[in-house]
Amino acid sequence: MSTHQHAAPAPVGGSLLNAVTVVCGVLILIMATILLVRFIFGLASVTNVNDGYSWGIWVVMDVMVGSALACGGFSVALLVYIFNKGEYHPLVRPALLASLFGYTLAGFGIFVDLGRWWNFWHIFWPGYANPNSVMFEVAVCVTAYILVMWIEFSPVFLEKLGLRDVRKKLNKWLFFFIALGVLLPMMHQSSLGTMLVVMGSQVNPLWQTPAVPLIYLLTAIIIGYGVVLFESCVAAASYRRSIEVHLLGPLARIMLGVLAVYLLVRVVDLTLRGAWSNAFAFSGVALSFWVENLAFVAPFLLIGTAVARRNPARLFLAGIAIMIGGILLRLNGFLIGYGHHTGTGWSYFPSVGEIMVTVGFFAIEVLGYIIITRRFPVLPRETAPAAS
Amino acid sequence: MSTRRHFLKGALAGGAAISGATLAPEACARATHTRPAEGLGLLYDATLCIGCKACVAACKQANNNPPEFSTEDKLWDTPLDTSGYTFNIIKMYRNGTMQTKDAEVDGFAFMKTSCMHCADPSCVSACPVSAMVKDPVTGIVAYHPEICVGCRYCVVACPFGIPKYQYDSPTGKIGKCELCRHRYADGHYSACAEVCPTGATLYGKTAELLLEAKRRIALEPGSVTRYPRGKIGGPDQSYEGKVGKYLHHVYGEFEYGGTQVLKLSAVNFEKVGMPDLPPKSSASTSETIQHSLYGGLVLPVVVLGALSFIAKKTVPDDDDAAPDDSQEKKS
Prior knowledge:
The complex is a heterodimer.
Chain A: H1 19-41, H2 57-69, H3 72-82, H4 92-113, H5 134-161, H6 164-194, H7 212-238, H8 245-272, H9 284-303, H10 312-336, H11 352-375
Helix pairs in contact in A: 1-11, 2-4, 2-10, 2-11, 3-4, 3-6, 3-7, 4-5, 4-11, 5-6, 6-7, 7-8, 7-10, 8-9, 9-10
Chain B: H1 2-23, E1 40-45, H2 54-62, E2 89-94, E3 100-101, E4 107-113, H3 122-126, E5 132-134, E6 141-143, H4 153-157, E7 164-165, E8 174-175, H5 191-195, E9 201-205, H6 206-218, E10 224-227, E11 239-242, E12 261-264, H7 282-294, H8 298-314, H9 323-330
Parallel strand pairs in B: 1-12, 3-4
Antiparallel strand pairs in B: 1-9, 2-4, 5-6, 7-8, 10-11
C-alpha cells in the first residue's frame, strides 16, 4: 500500500447514556415484544404479508435494502485494497463497522421472517441444500461474509484486549480475508438481483432483466460510497468532529464514475429489451421508476463539480439521493413492480408491527455503532496523538 | 487522474466480465426441462365442468384440510381462493347477463385452480433446501414440510400462485396439490378426478391426456363424442356428450416448457385466470445465470485468486495498527 500518514483510529469516548441511546433501547424493547408475539402466534399475528405478497418489508427492507446499505465496508475495501487507494484507509474501519451491523442484522431479519425457522440449518446441509436456488447462493455467501467481516473487524477488539500475538497471526492472513470480503459481496449482491429472475413476468419489465445481477452489483458499490458519505457526515455532526472533506470529495468523484457506468448499463438494457414503454404507463409503478432514477441522477447535479464536492451539505445530500435510489430499485423490483399473475386484488402495506421491527433493527445498528465507536478504536483520532 | 481512470477501468472490466457471463451464457445454458415420459397429471375441460365443486370438497377430505369460511353464517366450506388449507378450487368467470355457459360475452365459465405440476417448476428451482422437489418418474411436484425453512420463495416465484403458506400458525406449512400421491398406495388416484361427475377433471399420464385433449379440439363443435371419466385407462365410466366450442389451445402443452396438468377452455385463458407464459421457463433463465457465474465455482475461485494476489501486495503487515503500537515498539 502506498504510504499515507493519517490519524490512527481511537475510541471517541464519552457517556453511553444519552437521549439517542435511550430511544434506541426503547425501540429495541418494542421490537423484542413484537417478535415474541410473532414467534408464539405466527406471521399473521403481526405482519400484513399474504399469499399475493409473501415477502414484506422484513425481507425486502431488512435483507435486500439493509444489506445494500451495508455495502460501505465492501466498497471502501475495494477501493483501498484492490485499487490501492491507501489515502482512504481512515474510512475503512467505520465503514466496516456499519457493514458488520447491517449484514448481521440482515441475517437476523431473514431468520425472524422464516416460517419454519427451526429448520434454517438445512440451507447449509449437503443433501438438503439446493445449488440451483439463487437463495441458496445468497444465504451461503451472506453467512460467509458475516463471518469474514467479524474476522476483518476483529483487530479492533484484539487491540482493545491487548491480544497482540493473535493479532500478529491474523495479520498474516488478513489479506485473504480482505479478498474474500470483496468477493463475497460481489457474489451475493448480484445474486440478490438474480432472485427476481425466477419470478418471470410477475416482475415489471423495468426491473426484470437478465442483466439484473450487474445492475444490483453496480448499485451495491455505489450505495456503499453513498452510505459512507452519509455516515461520515452524520458521525461528524453528532460527535462534533470535523468532516473529512479531503477524503469524501475524491471518494464522491469515484462514486460518480461508477454511477455513470451504472446509468449507461441501465439505459442500454432498457433500450435493448424494449422496456421503455412501461416507464411511460400512467401508473404508480412508472412514477416509482422515475423517482428511483431521478435519485440516481441527482448526485451529478449536487456534486458534479470539484467546488460542489468540497461542500459537506452537498456530499451529504448526494449520499441520501444514492440511498433513496438504491432503496427504490430494490423496493420496486420486489414489491412495487411485483404482482401475482393470479388473483388480482392482492395488496400489501406493512403493518405497524412490521415497521416497528424494521425500525428496531435500525435502532440496534445505531446503538451498536455508538457503543463501539465510543469504546473501541474505529474512528480516526481527532487530533494528532501527543508524542511520547 | 490516472488512478481514477485505473479504478474505472477495473470497474468496467469487472462489469464486462459479469455481463459477458450473463448475456452470452451458451456454455452453461440450462435448457427448459420437458415433462418426464411417464409423468402423471390431470386434464381439466372447462366445457364439461358444471361447477358442482365436488372436487373442492373431495380435495379437502383427501388432504385432511379444515374448512374455510367466507360467509357470515359459516355453515360450510366456502374458500374464495386456494390457500395454505385449500389446494383446489373452481373459480367462475362472469360477463354481462351471464346467460350462456362458456361464452365470453354475456356468459359464464368455470376454471380449476390447483398445482399445474410444471415440467420445469419455478418453485423447485427457487427452494433453497430441496423441500419442493419434482419426482423424476411421476413428475409430481411434492412438498416436504419437515425440510422446509418457510422462506416462501416458492410462493413468490410460482406463476400460477399455487404454493401458499399458513400465516396464522407459528409452525405454518406450505400448502399445495401433490396430485394425491399419498393415496396411490391403496389404489386411489387424485380425489378431484375420482369424484368428478362429468369427467371435467380426468386423471392419467400427461402424454395420454394430451392426446385426449387434442382429440377433443379436433372435433366439430356440437357433434357428439364419448367422454371418459375418472382415470384414463381405468374402468370404463365414459358417457356420450356434446362437443364444446374449444379454443384451439391446450393450455399447458408448451407453457414454461409444459405442465402436467392440461386445460381446455372455450373462453380466453387469460380471462379465466391462466397467465400467458412463454415456452421458456423462468427457472431455466435463472439457473443459466447462476451456473454461468458459479458453475463449478470456477469464476469465484479465479476472482478470489486475483483479489488475494492484489490484496497481498496492498495490505501491509501492520495494517490497522494504531500508532500506539509502533510507538510502544520503539520504546
